[in-house]
Design goal:
190 residues, mainly alpha, Jann2411-like fold, 49% helix, binds zinc ion
Length: 190
């Protein structure tokens, strides 16, 4: 059985990590506040990417730059239909040398990577991310991709709720200040 980014929970975890990294590149704090830290390496470490601790600074930096270069695509994802999302993602997938391999590291036992055992860390993580995006688009289209509804927040998120009811990023201030503003607007109307 494949381990890399096929089960629903792994797709979810990988896409949430991708958005945490993307939100860092926006100059926003991590979607989950202090728990994920505020630099790419600590985001990856807390998300369980066991190679993150020993990855070279250059590799972590390249990964951050690659996510940043995908930001325009990630920002428009919620508005794309499946065909357009698939076409754009297919273009990104050509950048990854996908050659599956069985690896055993990090104390989790043998598992499958999309990349060879010698792959650079950023190639391995980008392969995980792009394959999770591919799996998600095949399973659910683009309906679970969202942008925070608060006026001055640019964060992107993956909506894992059952009824897809997520409107704001995980920063509680975004939901609360928007509700306060709505309430004030209503009071002015009456
Ligand atoms: Zn691994
Ligand atoms: Zn927000």
């Amino acid at each position: 059985m494949y381990v890399a980014s096929v089960t629903e929970s792994e797709v979810r975890a990988t896409l949430e990590t991708m958005f945490d990294l993307a939100n860092l590149e926006h100059g926003q704090q991590g979607d989950h506040g202090d728990a994920t830290g505020d630099d790419p390496r600590s985001v990856l470490e807390s998300a369980g990417f066991s190679r993150a601790t020993e990855a070279s600074a250059a590799s972590v930096q390249r990964l951050a730059q690659r996510i940043e270069s995908m930001l325009p695509f990630l920002r428009e994802l919620p508005d794309l239909d499946i065909d357009s999302a698939a076409a754009k993602l297919n273009a990104e997938l050509t950048e990854i040398p996908i050659t599956p391999s069985i690896v055993d590291h990090g104390g989790v036992g043998p598992h499958i990577h999309w990349t060879p055992p010698t792959a650079r860390f950023d190639d391995q993580v980008m392969a995980d991310i792009l394959m999770a995006l591919a799996q998600e688009i095949c399973d659910n289209g683009t309906i679970r991709f969202g942008r925070c509804g608060a006026d001055d927040c640019d964060r992107l998120f993956y909506d894992a709720t059952r009824n897809r009811s997520k409107r704001f990023c995980s920063d509680p201030r975004c939901a609360s200040r928007t509700h306060t503003a709505d309430h004030r607007a209503r009071r002015r109307d009456t």
